[in-house]
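Example record

Each entry pairs one chain with its bound ligand, pyridoxal-5'-phosphate.
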Amino acid sequence: MLAAEWNDWRWQSRNRIRTLEQFERVMVLSDVERAALVQGGTPLPTGVTPYYMSLIDPLDPNQPLRKTVVPSTAEFVRTAGEADDPLGEDDHSPVPGLVHRYPDRVLLLALDFCTTYCRYCTRSRVVGHGEIVANETRLEQAFDYLRRTPQVRDVLISGGDPLALSEERLDWILGSLRGIPHIEFVRIGTKMPAVLPQRITPSLCRMLRKHHPLWMSLHFLHPDECTPEAERACARLADAGIPLGSQTVLLKGVNDDVDTMTRLVHRLLRMRVRPYYLYQCDPLSGSAHFRTSVDKGLEIIEGLRGHTSGYAVPTYVIDAPGGGGKVPLQPNYLVGRDGDDVVVRNFEGKSFRYPDPLTAGPSLGGDRRPSPARLSEAAEAATCSSG
Ligand SMILES: *Cc1c(COP(=O)(O)O)cnc(C)c1O
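Structure tokens for the complex follow.
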């Protein structure tokens, strides 16, 4: 293999590690990993780019990154409350591959292919099955729906990984969306800077920058992913004027401690990526080994807020099973009320009082807003006194 091949994203994509034989050539598999690869049959395909494999410890099955891409028999275990489509995406899909759950924005699945499959994938029911393809017939149906749905002002292109598409295809998709006047804002969700940073070529960036305002949600989950290659990829995207956010899934034994998460968010800020969401892992079939308690997520946010830059603190969310959308969760900093004061606690656990004007205002009573009658009385009073 030549360096030119290693740095060529198409070579990386063609040479993904997928089979038992290929895995055995590059690592010592544990029993549960080997059994999962022999048995197969989970809906989620297996694949890891040679680049991402180079970040993986061949001897330690407990290495965080390894657990996220090498299958294990734990995926075959189904637990109460789990489902193949916990977010009810299929019920909110007006046309194939388009999810319209919120009033003003949609999720457009561009394709169902990824170069590297995350074992906790929220779309394991669809990825790698060849049902969602980036062909004109399906996408034109999606664009038609968007043209006749003027309340949509924001389109999130995800998948699969949209950056696995050719530049021409992605250029056409972005151009088509940009051509719809009420679409103000387009974003792309991708894990390429983490799993295949070689994909972020100057030519890709030249194409992307034609379609501003374009934002990107990157998927980083561990500081080990923040390599010089990933840093260069993010720099190219940022230099192309694309604001970068990171969506991180909270995973047991991978990133579920304050120290790992602090190192991750610090690395992200240095790479010009703003931590956007920390996701509670969805209750997907076979995900019990990845899921932490909600208290763990709150503990991590509490360990970040105040202790480090506000920009480093993501919003912790549960994507509500059944299609409720993302619900934010915060540690409770409100201790209570004492008379007219609100009592709050800071990151050091000290209590402070704030005189709350909403409850303190004597004449407004319980009503937050003065009535129009009261405002015109006040205006009249002012006119009289001034002249
Ligand atoms: C996450 C998501 C969005 C985008 O949500 P934001 O909170 O605006 O980032 C839109 N549609 C669907 C279906 C989603 O899951």
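The first strand starts at residue 98 and ends at 99.
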